[in-house]
Design a protein that fits this description.
single chain, Rossmann fold, nine-stranded mixed β-sheet, two-stranded antiparallel sheet, 7 helices
């Protein structure tokens, strides 16, 4: 599906992991991302580009965002608790500070430049912390079970309730939806300018929207896992990226 109506497609950057990985005889530190993310953008009519974590000195993130039409902050390891003034829980991941810095800087630049963005799983947590919010570090301590955690690479299926009148509702519909989950953390205190637009069992925040930007959506679930059947969030992001590109007279009218 090509949402742009043009042969020139919007460019959407997607953040990546940076950790040890194996391929063939090689066992090395590498930047990587599951194919489901960039396949969803391709299918929606965009051009995905991967954004490996790197030092943010010299305004690198701002320069990168200036060359993009859209941004996805993808899933990954837990955000370092010190970033929101907390001590690390025993269940929290060992932090990846270079990725925390990179994702946060890209998101800040996207907000400042009004580049459309979609924040997924870890991404919604990065967004909330970026806006001064905090996180529940281990949901089983809060809700009493691990229904959202998934296990051994198998995603959990959970029901979320989307608020009527929200941007998320305009994309996927208001009311109940079954989604794929793989997280043990979630939003606690909501960050400045964010509106909660979906919840799930135990009062867990499942979606937020950022006020004052054309398209700024965060979801706690993993829509890329259902993108072959339901690409609506990705199509909406690509449509917003197409509009942004046309407004800046860059990609679509190149």
């Amino acid at each position: 599906m090509d949402s742009s109506g043009s042969d020139v497609k919007p460019v959407v950057g997607i953040t990546t992991y940076l950790q040890r990985a194996q391929t063939g005889v090689w066992d090395t530190r590498a930047a990587f991302l599951p194919e489901t993310y960039f396949a969803a953008i391709e299918a929606a009519g965009g051009i995905p580009v991967l954004l490996p974590p790197q030092p943010i000195d010299g305004g690198v993130a701002e320069q990168v965002i200036a060359r993009l039409d859209g941004l996805i902050i993808a899933g990954g390891l837990d955000v370092e608790p010190a970033r929101y003034g907390a001590q690390a829980h025993p269940a929290s991941d060992r932090p990846s500070r270079i990725r925390d810095d990179w994702d946060d800087a890209l998101l800040s630049a996207a907000i400042a430049q009004e580049v459309p963005f979609l924040a997924i799983c870890r991404g919604i947590q990065v967004l909330n912390v970026n806006r001064g919010g905090t996180l529940h570090q281990h949901l089983p301590d809060v809700i009493g079970d691990s229904r959202y955690s998934g296990e051994n690479g198998v995603f959990a299926v959970n029901r979320v309730e989307v608020e009527e009148g929200s941007q998320v509702a305009s994309i996927i519909g208001a009311g109940a939806h079954e989604v794929k989950s793989y997280h043990h953390q979630a939003i606690d205190a909501v960050g400045e300018g964010l509106t909660v637009t979906a919840h799930s069992g135990g009062g867990v925040v499942q979606a937020v929207e950022l006020e004052g930007v054309p398209f700024g959506v965060g979801v706690q679930w993993h829509p890329e896992q259902d993108a072959e059947e339901d690409a609506r969030l990705f199509v909406s992001l690509v449509e917003a990226a197409t509009t942004y590109a046309a407004k800046t007279d860059r990609s679509v009218h190149a």
